[in-house]
Amino acid sequence: xxxxxxxxxxxxxxxxxxxxxxxxxxxGIRNITSGDHEASQLFVDEIEACRRISVGPAFTALLxxxxxxxxxxxxxxxxxxxxxxSKLQKNPKxxxxxxxxFLKDNNADPPMYVLQPITAHFPHYKTQLLQLxxxxxxxxxxxxxxxxEQKQLFYRSVTEIEIDQGLRKEDGEPSALxxxxxxxxxxxxDGPKRLAKFMDITADGLLDAEAQELLTGLKSRLYAxxxxxxxxxxxxxxxxxxxxxRKEHAQYLESLCEQFVSQMxxxxxxxxxxxxxxxxxxxxxxxxxxxxxxxRGREGLLGKLCLAxxxxxxxxxxxxxxxxxxxxxxxALLCKLAQELRNVLDPRAVVVIRLLSACHPLSPDVDHxxxxxxxxxxxACGLTPPPPLIANTHVELVKFFQNLLVKVSQQGSTLLxxxxxxxxxxxxxxxxxxxWLPADVPPNVHMVVSTDTGSxxxxxxxxxxxxxxxxxxxxxxSADEGKQILDxxxxxxxxxxxxxxxxxxxxxxxxxGSPLHLKLILAAAKRWTSFTPLTELCLGTDxxxxxxxxxxxxxxxxxxxxxxxxxxxxxxxxEGLLEAELRDVLSLDDDVIGEVYRxxxxxxxxxxxxxxLLWARLRWDLGENLTESWVDGVAMLRLQNRQLSVAVSAxxxxxxxxxxxxxxxxxxxxxxxxxxxKPVALPALSLLLSDRKVPPQPLWFAPGLANVRKLxxxxxxxxxxxxxxxxxxxxxxxxEWLFCKSRVCGVASVIRDLDQCSQYMDCTETxxxxxxxxxxxxxxxxxxxxxxxxxLSLAPPFPAVIGRLCSxxxxxxxxxxxxxxxxxxxxxxxxxGALQHTLSAPQGGQSHAAxxxxxxxxxxxxxxxSLADLQLTHTLLGHTGGSVCLSxxxxxxxxxxxxxCCCYEMLQKIKKNKNGSGVLLDSLSGxxxxxxxxxxxxxxxVSASTVASCVRLWSLKYDTRHKPKAHIPAVxxxxxxxxxxxxxxDRLAVPAEVCCLELAQHKRLLLCGLKxxxxxxxxxxxxxxxxxxxxxxxxxxxxCLAVGPQERRLAVAYEDAVCLFxxxxxxxxxxxxxxxxxxxxxxxxxxxxxxALMADRRLVYGTGCGNVELHDFRSxxxxxxxxxxxxxxxxxxxxxGNHVLVGSEDAVQRLWALNPLAxxxxxxxxxxxxxxxxxxAFSESDQFVFTGSxxxxxxxxxxxxxxxxxxQYVYAPVMKMVTYRNGFVALSQQGFVIKExxxxxxxxxxxxxxxxNVRAQYRVTSREKDQPGTETSMSNxxxxxxxxxxxxxxxxxxxxxxxxxx
Length: 1302
What we know:
Blueprint: H1 6-14, H2 39-53, E1 59-63, E2 75-77, H3 78-86, H4 92-101, E3 102-105, E4 112-115, H5 126-142, H6 148-152, H7 158-166, E5 176-182, H8 209-225, E6 230-234, H9 247-267, H10 276-293, H11 299-311, E7 320-324, H12 330-344, E8 350-355, H13 366-381, H14 388-391, H15 394-411, E9 415-420, E10 445-452, H16 456-464, E11 471-473, H17 479-492, H18 499-510, H19 515-525, H20 543-558, H21 560-572, H22 579-588, H23 590-596, H24 612-622, E12 626-631, E13 634-639, H25 642-652, H26 655-670, E14 677-681, E15 687-691, E16 700-702, E17 705-706, H27 708-720, H28 724-732, H29 735-745, H30 747-760, H31 764-775, H32 783-791, H33 799-814, E18 820-823, E19 835-840, E20 844-849, E21 852-857, E22 862-866, E23 871-876, E24 892-894, E25 900-904, H34 907-912, E26 920-925, E27 933-937, E28 940-944, E29 950-955, E30 975-980, E31 983-989, E32 994-1000, E33 1005-1010, E34 1015-1019, E35 1027-1029, E36 1038-1043, E37 1049-1054, E38 1058-1066, E39 1069-1079, E40 1088-1093, E41 1098-1103, E42 1108-1112, E43 1117-1121, E44 1128-1133, E45 1139-1144, E46 1148-1154, ...
Parallel strand pairs: 1-5, 5-6, 7-10, 7-11, 8-9, 9-10, 30-57
Antiparallel strand pairs: 2-4, 3-4, 12-13, 14-15, 16-17, 18-54, 19-29, 20-21, 21-22, 22-23, 24-25, 25-26, 27-28, 28-29, 30-31, 32-33, 33-34, 34-35, 36-37, 37-38, 38-39, 40-41, 41-42, 42-43, 44-45, 45-46, 46-47, 47-55, 48-49, 49-50, 50-51, 52-53, 53-54, 55-56
């Protein structure tokens, strides 16, 4: 085999997404001759399997100067064998010998003579039998009875047979590579003994002239027919061998490897990834055709089903339910129904079939099933498929599925949906309660489902469907039906049975009447010969006994440990195993290796693996009990049915065996023994360290190419093997793992893994990581940033996993080759707090009853969730108008600040309070829409909004350590809340409603403008000592405040004037003097909405109608800047007084240079919705400017070029920003404090696109610095998932009576 050589590494590196497997059935076997003579056929079958699954060369022939082993044919056709016997009439001993070794099998069709196992007679048979057959064949050819090709069958070597099979042409060129080596000269001293490794030698030590002649003929034929794939090498032996130390031999080996690698790479077909829907449809269609191929009988039941569908075609009706005991043939019946439907209803009918039991041992989740069904129906009927937001949301997907059936019905198309084995669904979203299954199906649409009679799903169907006429039971097969199936299956396999054997089969089958029982009997019967004694027939009384007999026969032939390990590993694998994976895992199993090498040493003690031929023999004998399923473009080995999986688990997977084999699987997918020596104890050797030659298991094979098999299997095996510490290190506590699997397999698959971990592990950190993934589920584009922004506050109390994740995220962000914002505090909704779950649902009201949450939707649909496990339980249709649902709860109070709902003590405790006002216990923060409905149930609060598409569930018994610290909760009317390091530190009373706030950071002054026109100034060192700027005589409202860069001056904008004050100090106490100057804005303009004061007493301000003015207090002059089309919402000056940014409610923001005054850049940003700029801050060096917008993003712009550098979604509009080092500190509308640092590498790739994760476009128009004119750069529209936006939430800012300081 090539594995382990340098060329193998080069080949792997250059083949991208191709999975390379080496199959060399001769490796590890000293003598390929087996007792049952099946080796030659196994080689041919393995070549055919490689041709079937390969996308590149499936066969590589290395032909030297040795013709190879020439084996006796195992099967000889009856006529040909009897013809050969007739040519040996003068040799009675030869005739007796042939008749002794070859027995006629009349069960074959046509009959064949079968070579008997060597254990049946004496072992020294080969030479005599071969000579007899060749003599007879030569005479037959001379007499003209057979052709030269037929005679050659008794002379050909196994090597020539394999080469002919591998080079067989089907379409175009053969999928193979051919390398031929010639020895040009042979020295006299290089006698036969020295050349024994390279040439055929007879028993007496001489060169085999006949073999050399046959080899010469083979090479001549290859030279003539395979020139395009032939690679010829000539090399002279050195002392009868190849010595890599010799220069010419080293060059030969290097040339051979280079040719192999280059030609393999050139011939591997780079196929585009196929559509997953098409792949799944083809998979189930192929399985359906296979299952109904041998289907016989059941005509009465099929007729009833077809009649029921035909009668209900034009009316609304219930789904049809096929039920019965396990193994009664429900799947085959439904497959046959799908095949016959078009003859009954409509030749153009669309048939959608899903065999859910085909995915065992993995239970399919209902979302995947519905998603694939919806996509197939839409593609077949020309309808619009579900968008990502709907396809990935359970409630929306169920609703889409049911509406889709109505659309197909209205279209007039005939549709049949078959869902087999509903009892195999996973219970995610309470799928087994079948709330997603419509109770009524519209006209022209038919739905047939199946389940076991004793299952929970059958009970749910009985409750859901009122009509008993919708249920059809599959009963036992009759004897006649069993006979039909027996004859049909044998005829398809070109086999028959003797009357005695046939009667024995039918007697055993009639004890159960089970199709599964008959199928297992047939699998064994197809291997019986006509001379197999009745006493050796393995017939069990039921399927379980048949499986036990199968296992017993396999153990006797192949060894109990090998059989148990192979079947056990296949049964334990989460999604099945690749054949290469199974061979690797068996090679790591010390028990299997010990059994294989019990009586002989491995060929190379430093390299120990399971000889591939041993597995090939076992697979041959497993036959139909092992199936191949194509998953993600690779062929997975799985056991044929559930019952076989159960039997394997019971026999080979006891507690100790299961744990040990799970540990081996976990080690394999961890890559623990790749390029490492593993100890093994063999009977003939002491403790030995050997290389098992298993491949490495990196998380990424190449950039963008993930190790999907590792992602699928490793968490499951680590968990169930009890290796929980490694599970925490490799999976739960690995940010790269979480990102990789979320990106490749979807966030839902990671959540399922963590849910399963939580069932076995009492680990708070696991639950916290799981909750984080629930929170970031709609948006995966900024994974590391979101993970850090949600978990940073939890790192100190949970250093082992959470702290490790935060460190990894920060390290990734700091080494990212692209511009990025690095969070320095938790500013997104963290896990583990009061918010337990966000239940996606369309808009509507909500209520609760006992442990159920009931939500009424605007379109009349009523849906229910279980509060016990947060799973949707029912979707109730039938209402024609919107559902209005009110819930009265005396212990719940709602603030109107769009952010908080607060729970007070119960009524009895409120009565005890002297003033009856109640005691505030907690503030639950994190909603992003006005709360319009609340309900209290036990220890939970449920909140909903008429403008939000979700319902939130809050726990009143959460761990307060998980509550976000950097968050501003609601306060009482007429008070200001001070915060220190993100935590409340004091509350200050104010006499009127607060209109605006400003902070002088260096002088530590808080300035507060009131509705009455008063400006209050609070020294933060002495917050109770308040300064006051009295209002003007007209008592105008304070519109906004602006503090100059050196904090020496203050500008106050009133409704009718703008005044300039000076901030000074007297006796180390702050003071304010003025107004020093005053001007009245133009009456033609709206009121001042935002302004910025420069160090040189220039003031830039914007108005509500979009005008922008520059007023110079020194000269009392004003000049107009380019206006905006809507209200100016943000005017921010740079830290060095050189620039000012003006933003408005429209999509335009302008960056002005102040010295001299000039418009540097006009930045236009068009997003999905809500484009307006709310706040901005320059970096300390004025190199970058950060903006917070209504689209809930923070953007980073380059001041010099005006280009957009980075966009980050923060889930809430950013209301205020201030400079923090090379970043900013900001406050979101939800009350979270955002602190981030911007990191921009010196060299950014030319391919970098800041909008690759955002569905938006931007345009920058800049003036050229040296000459008049403008230059424009523009982005392209990028794909973006609109799920991150809440389309129902339109920002409606109301005056607030509270103000906050950071």
